[in-house]
């Protein structure tokens, strides 16, 4: 019995935590200890490292806990989970505090942004609370991050609590971005009337900011309110010096979203008459609208007209129409449009055909197009996308091209 107890006690002293525990001086690095343990061929389980980190945190040995966490994340043998990321960020925050780095709102904001980027939204309000407990006044950005975190988790009561707190702070001046953020939160929650209230507040603060008007236009479109959407567009034209291609892309996209394609095409003509640089991203919005509505013929006629007037081609535009014909099972026209896209590629070298579209076309041409035309098409692809052809277009045992992943 004594022998058994002695063996058990020895085993406990020989585990990894027992090896690390004596190094109480936070200036001592634990990475060499972990490396030596691994070099000795001793196995390390995920749960052991998590237990060590937890123990070090409890003893306020934050630097060493962070070091163990970093060692774990840098080793491919371990599964570094979202909760491990949460612990890591918490340790970074505590380490920053120890070193006196969290003395301004900016440092806390950086930490909250880290939580948002890693999907740990529930940690954001804790940082805001910690900030206030340490005598640091949250700024507008601090509150906005917290609003978004509550909004993403559909915690409307907490959104409104934060709003009341913001309104009570004399140093906080609400801007259009904050009001647009709140309107979007209400919109996603299905609270349309409340969304409208904050859109009106947003409008009051927009002044001559084109980006602000773009947000208003997009949010009214999401509400399905075309009248307010177009009123915001008219305000943008009246209050901003000029409308950029970006602005037209927004309003055209919203008209397409609401199904007003003819009105979008008319607005596109207004843009064409005044634009200094013809950016195909603008008409592509309308081409997508017609193609997705099952009218690729209309989109093709429109593109042919653009090509005739502008004396320039764009592969992405032809690819959009090819997709429209493909959706209607008109593979012959899809094939023709994709050939046109590849032929136009010299004028847009950054464009690449979508693998799924090429796969579908190749599966069709094998049985419907003569061998010479198939060869010409594959040759065109190979000339422009040799690596793509080599990797994706290897015939299977049956002699056909395999289906490509979407």
Q: How can the largest sheet be summarized? A: none
The percent range for helix content is over 70%
Individual helix count: 23
User: H/E element string?
Assistant: HHHHHHHHHHHHHHHHHHHHHHH
- Indicate the structural class: mainly alpha
List the quaternary state of the chains: single chain
- What is the 3D shape? flat
**Gap between N and C termini:** 65 Å
Tell me the radius of gyration: 30 Å
The mean pLDDT is 85
Strand content: under 5%
Kindly state the number of beta strands: 0
Low-confidence stretches: 1-13, 391-406
Keywords: Repeat
PPR repeats: 104-138
Family: Belongs to the PPR family. P subfamily.
Protein name: PPR CONTAINING PLANT-LIKE PROTEIN
Describe this structure in words.
This protein has 406 residues and is mainly α. The protein has a domain at 16-101. It has helices at 2-13, 16-20, 31-39, 46-58, 62-73, 82-98, 105-117, 124-133, 140-152, 156-168, 176-188, 192-206, 210-223, 226-239, 245-257, 261-274, 281-292, 296-310, 315-327, 331-343, 355-368, 371-384, 386-392. Helix 13 runs antiparallel to helix 14 (226-239). The radius of gyration is 30 Å and the shape is flat. The termini are far apart. One of its GO terms (molecular function) is mRNA binding. PPR repeats lie at residues 104-138. Keywords: Repeat.
């Amino acid at each position: 019995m004594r022998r058994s107890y002695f063996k058990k006690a020895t085993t406990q002293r020989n585990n990894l935590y027992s090896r690390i525990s004596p190094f109480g001086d936070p200036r001592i690095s634990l990475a060499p200890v972990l490396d030596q343990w691994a070099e000795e061929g001793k196995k390390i389980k995920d749960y052991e490292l998590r237990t060590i980190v937890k123990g070090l945190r409890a003893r306020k040995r934050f630097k060493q806990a962070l070091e163990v966490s970093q060692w774990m994340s840098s080793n491919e043998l371990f599964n570094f989970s979202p909760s491990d990321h949460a612990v890591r960020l918490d340790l970074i925050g505590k380490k920053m505090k120890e070193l006196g780095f969290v003395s301004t709102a900016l440092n806390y904001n950086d930490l909250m942004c880290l939580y948002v980027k890693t999907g740990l939204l529930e940690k954001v309000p804790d940082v805001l609370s910690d900030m206030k407990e340490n005598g640091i006044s949250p700024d507008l950005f601090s509150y906005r991050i917290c609003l978004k975190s509550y909004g993403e988790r559909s915690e409307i009561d907490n959104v409104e609590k934060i709003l009341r707190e913001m309104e009570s702070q004399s140093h906080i001046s609400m801007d259009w971005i904050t009001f647009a953020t709140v309107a979007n939160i209400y919109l996603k929650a299905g609270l349309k009337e409340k969304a409208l209230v904050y859109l009106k507040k947003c409008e009051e603060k927009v002044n001559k900011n084109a980006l602000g008007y773009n947000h208003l236009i997009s949010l009214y479109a999401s509400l399905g309110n075309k009248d307010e959407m177009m009123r915001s567009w008219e305000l943008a034209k009246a209050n901003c010096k000029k409308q950029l291609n970006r602005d037209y892309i927004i309003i055209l996209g919203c008209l397409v979203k609401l199904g007003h394609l003819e009105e979008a095409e008319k607005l596109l003509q207004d843009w064409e008459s005044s634009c200094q640089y013809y950016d195909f991203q603008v008409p592509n919005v309308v081409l997508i609208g017609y193609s997705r509505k099952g009218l690729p013929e209309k989109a093709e006629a429109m593109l042919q007209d653009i090509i005739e007037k502008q004396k320039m081609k764009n592969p992405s535009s032809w690819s959009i129409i090819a997709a429209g014909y493909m959706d209607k099972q008109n593979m012959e026209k899809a094939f023709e449009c994709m050939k046109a896209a590849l032929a136009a590629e010299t004028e847009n070298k950054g464009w690449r055909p979508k693998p799924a579209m090429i796969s579908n076309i190749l599966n069709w041409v094998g049985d419907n197009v003569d061998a010479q035309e198939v060869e010409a098409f594959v040759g065109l692809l190979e000339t422009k996308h040799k690596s793509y052809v080599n990797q994706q277009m290897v015939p299977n045992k049956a002699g056909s091209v395999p289906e490509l992943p979407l």
